[in-house]
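Exercise 7.
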Amino acid sequence: MTAALHVGLVSGLVLLAFAWCLDNATAQRDGPRLVGMAVALPLIAWVLPDLRLLFAAMLLCVPVVAGRTDRIAPVYVFALLLLPGLDTPVTIGATKLFDFGVHDAMGLGAAAALMLYGNRARPRVAFDLAAVGIILLLGAALSRGTTPTHFLRVAINIVLDLGLPYYVLSRGIASMEDMGEALLWLAAGAVVLSAILLYEAAQAWPIYYPLYQHYQVPIGYFVKSRGGILRAAGPFLESTATAFVMAICVLALWLARDRFRSKWHHLLMFGFAVLGLLAPQSRGAWSGLFLAIILTMAHNGQYLRIIRTGVIVAGVGLALVVAAQSSPSLSETLGLSGSSSDSAVYRETLLARGIEELHASPVVGFALADIMDRLEDLRQGEGIIDFVNAYLWVALISGLAGLALFLSCYGLFVLHAVRLRRWASGDTRRLAASGFVIGALVMSAMMLAFTAFNARPAVFVFVLFGAVAALVAIRDRERRPRRSVAPPKIYTKWAWRRM
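Solution. The predicted structure, written as tokens, is:
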């Protein structure tokens, strides 16, 4: 319970500051929900005595906080950032059916609200097929060499983990106002995560670990440090995954400038979020965010600004390298020595060994159990083989054929995101939204070369897929000839009842 009070206090204070920096209209509309949700969810999670009660509460939290279908997607993505998954097996007798966790409950509640009260958006079927293609690929590859019932179990897990985020975003964003709200709530997520990560690093306290003990859920992660400083992971429990998602949220904050009182209020929050991004000590996220910001500037035609930003970043980087010569801790953090240098060596070894094994079965790869046996020499002190290269992992478990399918489906979303530029030209909101999906997808594609495609990174890749599908649907609808339009549906503020 002590941890809950710390999380609630830190989250509440930083979001009050965030709301103060917003323009008055936005602060009055979204501020109370943001602060209330960030404070209430940790308290609820630590107070409830039974995991089933927590799942029931999380099933209701997104619809209750949103109050209307147009707020479902923004509230949902923010909720995903606040608590660990706490996944636990659902069984009948001694038979395991599938795994279920906090984020699955949130997704089911959000999806059910959209289904019951009308799917507000209609994305292209091609996007649904691409998302389903990756889901089926992963399901088939991960259950390869096992029984049909195991395939069904794996497929249910993947649909809950990846299918629900795609569905909620692709159906829950129906207008540019909805997309703007999603960016704002992701921006708020960057600020609250930054506060939690900095607090964890300062106190050397992985603050969410006691939640697993409270519900007696096994935890498969280890506390990590670098340069004598805790690699903060917050509710994600794994620092690299935290940095991956944090970079996406910081990009959303960078592009939400129009929601703030002034440029300086915006820069204050952005600077704080970037400071928090340092806490997981993930160089891939720093590089990815820089790439994404450069891409958004190019998307907006701000070429002189790109040069200025590049010069500033190069100067800061040079200063850090020079300072690292006299600071072992900074040197290790930057990857110039110590355990971070060892992790770079491991990545190189993993790539070399993976390519070597792939030569033995290049087309279809190997069953997961087989490839684990073949790469036994890469097992680390934590007792795991860490597949910190998503593309290599996909190739190993499904072959080059599976990798081609994965890249084709991912590429479809990137291609359509890039094609949004002409439609977005000249409109600030469209430029921000389209710049976000382009920058975030390319950034994620780069970071996946250094990150495993599991847990929260995979979830947020499918969040981005859903956002692209929704934006393309909005563009297509705006391009269609206008007809007589029925009056919009109006909903009560706190009830799911049509007026």
